[in-house]
Structure formats: C-alpha cells, structure tokens
Amino acid sequence: MSDALYGLIGALGGAALGAAGAYWGPLRQQREVALQAAAERMYAERHEKIERLIAVRSSLRAWNALLNRTFLEMQIPGRSVDLDQFRQDELNAMNEGWRALDAVMHDHVVVSAAIQRHLLANETFRPSMLTEALEQFGLRLSQVGQDGLPMSAEALEELEALSQRAANWRRDLSAVIESRLEEYFLGSHSPGSAST
Asked: What pLDDT does residue 107 have?
C-alpha cells in the first residue's frame, strides 16, 4: 500500500510540476519577448534621437556655410552674386534648419551649456539665438548685395561681426550636440544586449 501511496504522491507531484511548467513557461517566455521588444523600441528611439541631432548640426552647418561662401564671393573684385538664387538657396537652408530644430524640440534637448557663455557676457537668452544670427547675417548679405559691390568698409566690418556671432553660436551648439551624441553612443547597445 505504501508503494501505491508513494506512486500516487509522485504522480500528483509530477502532474503539479507539469501543470506549473505549462503555466509559468509561456508566461516567462512572454515576459522575455516583451522585454526584448521594449529593448528594441528603446534602441530605435535612441537611434531616431541621434539622427535628429545630426540633422540639426548638419543643416545649420550647411546654412552657415552658404552664408560664408556668399560673403567670400562678395569680397572678390569683379565677382557678382545672383541675389535671387542666393535668396532661394538661403530660404531652403533656413527652412531645413528650422525643420531640424523643430524635430529636436520633441526630444527636449537642453542647450543650456551652449548659452551659458553668452549669459555670462550679459547677452539675452533666447532658444533661437543661432537661427536669428544666421537670419541677420543672410539679410545683411542680401542688403549689401543689393546696394552693389564692392561693399563699403563699414558693411564689410558689420558682416564680419555677424559671421563671427553666428560661428560662435554654431560652435557652442555643436559642442552641446556632440556631448549629447556621446551620451547616446555610450548608452547605445544593441537590442537584447546584457546592458540594455
């Protein structure tokens, strides 16, 4: 009888373990699949943020390069600048820069380090300081081009100051973007890796 009892207990225990395994096994697998999906989502979101930061940096660099290239062309004796083409190119570059900045605002990117130096110099802070500097530089280039070349010494000095102001803001913003990119890259492991 004791053998039968032990057999019954063993069968019931085996059935209980089998039932528990049948219940907890799929739950554990579902949990692992959900964790893997969350890790992949986080990795994809991080990658999208990186792409948006790179777009800001490259679009503002292209806008600034267009303005500086036009400024240099205006200084070449006997060289004329097609103002209509310049205005169209600048409008395209400006729109691309604003689109990239708008996309990054979604990520709540803080640029406080970029403005700290300017705040210490008692400059008024506005998030759009770089784009305003680029817009002022472009507008003044257009006005000087319309006035005719060669440009006056005062116009040259003013344009050099506007170019330098835009370059300073772009350099500071680029430093912040590079810092943020480093944070993302240091934290960007492939989905499913042990440290994700």
From this structure: 67
Structural domains for the chain: 44-186 (1.20.120)
What digits encode the pLDDT tens for the residues 107-129? 655 444 444 554 455 454 455 77
114 Cβ contact partners less than 8 Å away, ≥ 6 residues apart: 169, 172, 173, 175, 176
Distance CA 118, CA 170 (A): 12
Rounded Cα distance between 186 and 10, Å, is: 53
Contact criterion met (CB below 8 Å) for 176 and 113: yes
DSSP per-residue letters across 82-139: -HHHHHHHHHHHHHHHHHHHHHHHTTT---HHHHHHHHHTTPPP-TTHHHHHHHHHHH
**Cα separation, 96 vs 92, whole angstroms:** 6
3-state helix, strand, coil in the chain (%, to 5): 80, 0, 20
Dihedral (CA of 80, 82, 87, 93) sign: negative
Question: What is the gyration radius of the CA atoms in the chain, in angstroms?
Answer: 30
